[in-house]
Amino acid sequence: DWETASWQVLVGLAAYDADVSLPLGLGRTFVDLRYLWGRAWPRNGGYAYLAVEAGGRLFEGDEPAQFRLEATWYHPFSAAWGVALAVNGVESRFVEAREEASGRVTFLGHSLWKSGVGPVFDLGEGKSLKLTYWKDFAGSGTGKGASLELAFAMTLGGK
């Protein structure tokens, strides 16, 4: 059994013009501060865990501040694999639709809540592969949908 906690500070810098027709990324500078907490315990030859992170993101300009939350629970069925369940949420201080003279509607802020589930495979030597199916279940000022995420993770400094 072990438990850990930490703070994370992330600074995002705008590296392009956010007004282009198809911008990539956020296009604005922000500061993100989060508190991360996790607990793990032995189960079925592997380690089950619960991880939670919560915090806020402050943007430059008129984009409203956001509250962010992510929680993941992992249950191993053996030392080789298990299943992870997750919930992820972003909630802006306010959501405002703006209509431009051209008729194009843009939003300040958004709300998006999604849940995820999928297998995690232990590849040995501190490496793992995770496939997650994410489904949006609530939100405003954003699209609604589903996605697949494939992630490779490697533990640094030991197993």
Question: Can you walk me through this structure?
Answer:
With 159 residues, the chain is mainly β. Helix content is 0%, strand content 67%. It has no helices and 10 strands. The strands form 2 sheets. The protein has an 8-stranded antiparallel β-sheet with strand order 1-2-3-4-5-8-9-10, with no helix packed on it. A two-stranded antiparallel sheet has the order 6-7. The protein is elongated, with a radius of gyration of 19 Å. The two termini are 15 Å apart. The mean pLDDT is 90.
Which short descriptors sum up this protein?
single chain, 159 residues, mainly beta, 8-stranded antiparallel β-sheet, two-stranded antiparallel sheet, 67% strand, elongated
Helix vs. strand class? mainly beta
Estimate what percentage of residues fall within beta strands: over 45%
The N- to C-terminal Cα distance equals 15 Å
Largest sheet: 8 strands, antiparallel
Mean pLDDT: 90
User: What percent of the residues sit in helical stretches (DSSP H or I)?
Assistant: under 10%
